[in-house]
Structures are given as structure tokens and as C-alpha cells.
Amino acid sequence: MADMKLLSPIRIGNLEIKNRVVSTAHSAFLDFFRPGADGERYMAYQERRAEGGTGLIIMTAMHVHPTSQIPNHFVYEPADMAPKFQSISRRVHAHGAKIVSQLFHFGMQGKSESRDDYAPIWGFTPTVTQAGEAVHEMTDDEVEEIIDAFAAAAKCAVSNGVDGVELHGTHGYLIQQSFSPWANQRTDRWGEPLYFVKELGKRVRAAIGPDKLLGFRISADDFIKPEDGGVGHAKLCEYAGKIVRSGYFNYLNHSEGAGGAHYARAIASYRYPFGEYLPLTRGLREALGGLVPLIGVGKIPTPDLAERALLDGDCDLVGMTRAQIADPDLVKKVASGEINRVRLCTGSNQGCFDRTGQFPITCIQNPEVGEERRFKALAAEIISPKKVLVIGGGPAGIKAAEIAARRGHRVTLVDAGNKLGGRLNLVEPMGPASNLLGAVSWVTEELKLLGVKTIHNTVVDETFVKDFRPEAIILATGAESVPVIDFPTDGSVPVIASDDAAQGIFEGVHFDMSGTRAVIIDRRANYETNLVTEAVSKRGSQLTIVTSFASSVTNTGTSHAIFYGAEFPKRGIETLGGHMPMSVSNGSLTVRHGITGREATLPCDFIVTAVHPKPRNQLLDMLKKYAPVKTAGDVVAPRSALEAFREGDRAGRTV
User: Fold this and answer.
1) What is the pLDDT of residues 496-555, one digit of tens each?
2) Residues 6+ positions from 601 with CB-CB distance below 8 Å
3) DSSP class per residue in 439-485
4) CA distance 107 to 466
5) N or C: which end of the chain has fewer CB within 10 A?
6) Could you tell me which residues come within 8 angstroms of residue 440 by beta carbon, excluding any fewer than 6 positions away?
7) Which of 571, 556, 563, 595 is nearest to 518 (CA)?
8) Closest by CA position to 109, among listed 123, 95, 90, 94
9) Pairing verdict, β 509-510 and 505-506
């Protein structure tokens, strides 16, 4: 694999990047910028990607000015950041990678109540933010102040070992606002579309000197119609060409959209094609005329697709950010000829993008993310390998078996079904969601390579355990979906568990849902409920969701919430948020609004109970008589595959 263009070096400015794989900027462990925080979690996270072989790391965007502060984000202090920049640069450089700090300002986004001293929202035009707050139009001096802040932040980074900076001109932030009609209707010099960008480039370049990298990130398409103040792909390509011809920049990076709902496409889930935006990437590259290298991005999860993008001339480097969240050793594996062992991103977004802004990121199938230092300590060589029995082949069980075997234990995995994956296998017929099974497939193949003995179609009982004589047991028997209701019914409407409904099954028999009316009682408002809702709708049933939450997507992340928010109305799915089911009689469900008390009657042919499944924990007390027992996954508390993989990993590391 050494002859792949993906692994070949490339020169950017005065620096040689050892390969063309880039980890682009993404929101992760934002307390790195919090004054007083040691930043260790973020540094270990990025060091792990450098250790895995990536060529270039672009750091999480850093706010340059107090008027850019938002909740859970922090405005840096130079004296606090100096040692952090020095440390992360040293650690990344030790593995041969280069590192760049991305700089940005939110501009006219958000609300001022989250800011120190309630500083107002600054923008180029006195408009209103999407959050409904009036924007302060920056004076000439204030625009200059912002430019000075960018220059000062850039100098802080490069003076402390960072290889360069990237100006973030996408996702609807201040720099993109400067050349977008929807955000800038000024008539002075700052109203000229690229005047702010060029002034910014000139001053930042002066601050960092000629030898440090200066990159620019632009949207390949802003997804905004011209009549709504958008720029469009063609004009953005023209702007990109003019920006690099200014002579200040060493490379161009890109994304898509202008923030907000556009994030669901810019950071696309499994619902969208691989490399969907590479034609737009190619348009940008043609506009650059070879003046500077271009980083191509947009759901490029596989080495093969990345290589094809390079060979086809779409770009010069490839952003494989989520790919390296899923597998930080991606580059090493490709270089060593183990491309088949790369753990591919499933596109779930549940652990990464959908957590940003509220929680530290993780990965649905890679629990190491954010725990790099602690998990390394847990991975210490074991002194006395044990005979380990893992019961249950769902996400928790297979992950526990993998990690325990990787640490040197003798592992046997027993599952009652005929294939691994547990309840996650229900997504197999669900179209794009079936990509989630890639996480199961990867672990399954690793179990073979690790020598784990797998026994299918076997129900573990006390006789089995006695005969097996385990030295350690991991119980991961999962949970069972049940048709439980907690309100009166006359029995006139059948009640179906969510797992059965997703498969079109009632009392063990498949039935045709076409033309039926159904109500989903949603007690979870999570990923699982919405997948079931989607599956039942596709089977032809007219649906109403009844939930006590504000909506059925309350407990899903941004990318999926945006998708369902658009998709469900198209399918005629009605959501009654803030409602509780009261009773069933004469073929109808009566529901009541929790605040107003207003009731409604919903005629229906069946009811789906989207409630948490019941743990299968009947073996626990018996198992404790024979060996120490650890539990993992839904048998502990029914949640999602993300928690199951994580708990399985934890059990395997500590057995």
C-alpha cells in the first residue's frame, strides 16, 4: 500500500506533510481553551491521531474575541494557552504530524446572555440572530479590533510551536458573513465582499511571518438561495480563487453550508452518500488553478474513496476526520497492508457531531475517544490470563470479548442467536441505518483473528456454566422489547412492542400494515424510537406519535433531529408533543395535553409501545456462584449501542 497517493508526502508552503490524510477541525473537548484547565484530554486525543499516522491535524476552532463567546465555549487567554500550545505541538510533532490552529468568530449568531458581562452580538449589519436577538452593527474601529484579535490569536499559536493557523470562513460564522449578502449589506469598505477577508489575511500573515502555514476554509456551497442572500457554488469558487491569489494563503480547506440546519448535510449521517460533495470540491480546485493545495472533505470514510478523490484530481489532501475518530490507526493500517482491518465510520453521528456543544465527543464503536490516557493504563499487560465466558453476542458482548482477548485472556463467546449483533440487527432492513451493522462486522472479524471461540444458538444455563468452569464471566444478555402500557384499556386496540412493530410482526406473525392507522406511545424520544417510527411508516401505516416530550427527537442529536423534523411531515406523521395516553376504548386512544388538559381521541388499528426494553438479567445471581461476574450493555440498563459498546469495552479491560 506504500505506493498509494494517499500516503505520499506533499509540500504546503515551507512545510512537508508526510502524507495526505488530514484530521480537520471539529468540536472536541472545548475545555482545552478554558483558562485554568490543563487541556490534557484534548491533547491526548490529538496525540493519539498523530500516533496513528495522520499527516496534518487542524485543531478545534479557537474563539479570538470575547464577542464570540457561546455556552460551553471559552475565549482563550494568551498566557494560559502558551504552555498548552507548546505541549500539544511537541506531542504531535513527536509522531511526525504537523498541527494548525483554526481561528474563528461567531459573528451574528447566538444570544448575549451566555457571554461575560452580556456582551452584545456583533455583526456587519444590524439584523436579528436566529435566536431572536438584535445584532450590534460593528463600527469601523470594532471591525479593526476583530482583525487585530485574529492576528493576536494567530501569533499566540505560532509563537508556541504550532505550525500555522486556518481562518474559518464557513458554517455561517463571521468570516463567511463578511462576504454573504444575507449578513452584510454595508455600503462602506467592509461591504465589499472580500475586503474583510483580504485585510484579515494580510494582517494575520504579517503576525505569523512568511514561514508559517496560513489556510482558509470556505464553503463549497452555502446552500442558500440567491434571493435569500446566498452566494452559491460558482461565486464561492470565484471567491476562493481571488482569496488564494491574494498571496497570503498556503492552502484551502472547505466544508458546506452556512451552519444551523445545514450541519446535517455538511456533517452527513449514514443517510447520505459517501463523497457526495466531491464534485463541488473539484470545482474549487479548478478555481484555484494549482496555486495552493486543496483539502477535500465531506464524508470520505474509506481509504479507497480518499485515494480515488486524489487520483481523480478532486483535491490534493483528504479530510478523514470522522474516519480517524472511528479508527485513529487508519493510516498505520493502510501503510502496513492491513486496510481490511480499518474500523470504518458508520456515519451514526451519535457519538461525535450529535454531542458537540453539550458533551465531550466519543464514538459509537470506539470508546477510546476522549479516554486515551485512561484506556492506555487499563490496557497494561495482564499477568494471569483467565478463562473468560462472555454470555450474549450483542454490541456489549462482542466488544467485551474482543477487548478481553486482545489483552490475552482465553475467551469464549456464547450467544442464543444465529448471528452476532443482538437487537442492533433490527436495523438490517432499515435502509441507510443498516450501516450501523458495520460496527458489528468489524468486531466479528477481529474476534476471528483474536482466536475467540464463538458458540451460536446456545442458551446458557447452570449446567453449561458448571461444565465450562469459567474463571471470569461477562454477562451481556441485553434486553427484551415488551408491549407494556400503564393506562386502562378495553382491549379493543392491539398493543405491539416496538421491536415487533419495526419488523411488521404481531403475536409472532407478519402482517400487512398498509392502510392501517397506528399510534406510537413514545417514552424515549431517542434514536431507537425514531428508527421504529420510520420503519412502521415505510410499511404503510399512517402514524401519530404521542410523547410527553416536546417532540419525538428530544433525545436525539442535531443531525438526526433535523432529518426527522423534515422527513416526518413529508410522510404525514403527526407528533403530539407534551401529551400523555389516558385510556383505550372502542378502538380509540384518548390522550391529554400535560399543561392545558385538553383531550383528543385518536382512532387506531394498533398501538406501538416505544418504551425501554426489559433487561434479561435472570442469570445474574446464579452466575455469581461460579466466578466473578461483570455486566455490560442493556442487561445493566437499556440504552443504545453507544453505551453497550462502551460498557463492553470497559468490562473487557477490567476482567
Assistant:
1) 999 999 999 999 999 999 999 999 999 999 999 999 999 999 999 999 999 999 999 999
2) 588, 589, 590
3) HHHHHHHHHHHTT-EEE-S----HHHHHHH--SEEEE---EE-----
4) 66
5) N
6) 395, 398, 420, 421, 424, 425
7) 571
8) 123
9) antiparallel
Q: Grid coordinates standing for 333?
A: 493500517
Q: Give pLDDT, residue 358.
A: 82
- The residue assigned the cell 408491549 is 483
Query: Which fold, 5-344?
Result: TIM Barrel (3.20.20)
Residue 115 near residue 69, CB atoms below 8 Å: yes
Domain boundaries, the chain: 5-344, 381-480+615-654, 495-612
Nine-digit cell at 488?
Answer: 386502562
**3-class secondary structure, 9:** coil
What single letter denotes the amino acid at residue 351? Answer: G
CB-based contact 222:258 (threshold 8 Å): yes
- Which CATH number does the domain 381-480+615-654 belong to among 3.30.200.20, 3.40.980.20, 1.10.10.60, 3.40.50.720? 3.40.50.720
CATH 3.90.1300.10 for the 495-612 domain, yes or no:
no
Q: What 3 state SS string does 24-53 have?
A: CCCCCCHHHHCCCCCCHHHHHHHHHHHHCC
Sign of the Cα torsion 397, 398, 401, 402 reads: negative
Contact 259, 213 (CB under 8 A): no
**15 in helix, strand or coil?**
strand
3-state secondary structure at position 60: strand
Of 262, 248, 253, 103, the C-alpha closest to 174 is 103
Nearest to 543 by CA among 563, 561, 567: 567
The C-alpha cell of 205 is what?
A: 500573515
pLDDT in tens, 457-504: 999 999 999 999 999 999 999 999 999 999 999 999 999 999 999 999
What per-residue confidence (pLDDT) applies to 69? 86
> Which grid coordinates belong to 395?
454490541
Pure H helices in 209-347: 233-245, 263-266, 278-288, 303-311, 321-326, 330-335
Contacts with 563 (C-beta within 8 Å, 6 or more apart), sequence order: 264, 269, 271
Distance CA 235, CA 237 (A): 5
DSSP string, 530-596: HHHHHHHHHTT-EEEEEESSSSTTTTS-HHHHHHHHHHHHHTT-EEEETEEEEEEETTEEEEEETTT
Question: CA 52, CA 47: separation in Å to the nearest integer?
Answer: 9
Q: Which three cell numbers stand for residue 573?
A: 406523521
Q: Strand 472-475 vs strand 479-480: parallel, antiparallel, or unpaired? A: unpaired
Sign of CA dihedral 374, 379, 380, 383: positive
Count of CB atoms within 10 A of residue 14's CB? 12
* Cell output for 1: 500500500
